[in-house]
User: Fold Substrate-binding domain-containing protein from Nocardia fusca.
Amino acid sequence: MSELLFNLVLPLAGIAIPMGAFLWEFVVVGRKRLGWRVQMDTPVTGETESGHAGALRQLRQTSDGAERNLQDLSVVLVRIENNGATTIDAADYVTAQNSQAGLHLQFPDRKVIGMAVTELSNPGLAVCFEPDSGFGHRQLEQGIGVIDLPKVPLNRNDHYKILATLERTSGHGPYPDPVMQGVVTGGGLTRTKGRTGVSLLMVALTGFLVLVIAAMTVLDIAEPEPAPLGCATGELTVVGSTAFEPVIREAARLYEQMCPGARFAFGFEGSERGMARLEDEAGGHGGLLAIGDAPKGADYPALVQRPLAVSLFSVVVHPSAGVRDLTAGQIRDLFQGRVSNWREVGGADQPVRVVNRYTGSGSRWTFESRLLDSPQPPEPGVTCRELRRGAAAGRCQTLYTDDMLAEVAATAGAIGYSESADAADTPGLVGVTIDGRRATRDELAAGGYPFWGVEYAFGHGDFAPGSLGAGFLRFLVGEAGQDVIRFYGNLPCADVADPALCHPRAG
Assistant:
């Protein structure tokens, strides 16, 4: 109910009330409105004591030279104007039968002794004040001076002014206010004020609109922005491949920005461990997603895998190895123990130290399936720290991608492998070309670069419609997710010319 009030009723009120005020002001009560205001009403005092008493002396003299005994003179200037919405015609003035005057300006306690029309907004209005127009002045028995004004037709904003000289007839102190009498059909008479300020109505309407805008702004800030269509909310934990971890973390960050109700947690410990956790927890009731750079194999029949991207991998060496390019055959010989010194493959006189990922790693599976033609020798059980301190050739294993890259960078004569973007971001390493081919999307598309794998997303069965797992998978294969995949040097499956490249392979 409150949402309906603020989202519908408040904006409608912000439109209806000003429109209603406009219609009331200019159509109902102001359609035909004759306004008048006193612009000057001042006593004439002190003139005889000044050096310029001629005007007052002439006013007091009669035509035969006698002098009137005028007491307490005043001068009044009155403006009569059409301040309505339509034209006022002569027929709009309602008067007594056979009366030519349309309005009557009264001055209590004063007598009119002279008057003149001083200003016409339209010179054509002068004909309205001819001798037979009804324009004149008179005195009522009650001591009220009256100026009779003719039925002047006025267009919108037309006006004229009357200047009158008056004499007090009774009373003392401030003069009573003048009074305008008359009837205008379809509207009325209104005593107006000067237009130097802002009308009370305009102030009230402006204040009301400011309050409406402020209220809507506060509500707009207070209410959360609705999530875009297709957003899913809830919690999702992503586990699995450390090689694809940067891509997934960045994609999850962007998804949370777009869909504020989504929250992600991570547990990247390798592809095999990710799939095992997904299997053991039965998908965490839909809150668990695994990423792997190896297919699921026969050990995980309940898992559903979806290819996401073709991922480029690189072989990396310590700079002391003295090589920049290796053939696929040389890489096989190095990892299968047939070469123990780098000088045998054109490098420095330096023992070869192989740094491997543990069995079950998706990166190791990709490396062995793409570049090796037979299994590697058994691991000797030596830690990488021990291998680094020794002087002979050897091999060790690491659990995570970052550990492998760190060990290769710290161990003289070391060789290893990882996802290409991670390798490029690690200082102290040399990414070797393979048979002269660089790890680029162009080389991969041309069919020349041999070291690549497919990154998969795994669910325990299909995610429920509307769940965060289903929404995040759509995001990963959509345009935004593909942009992230490309940024990290990989090739979205949607970009692959040969769909067979992304086809799941048996483990």
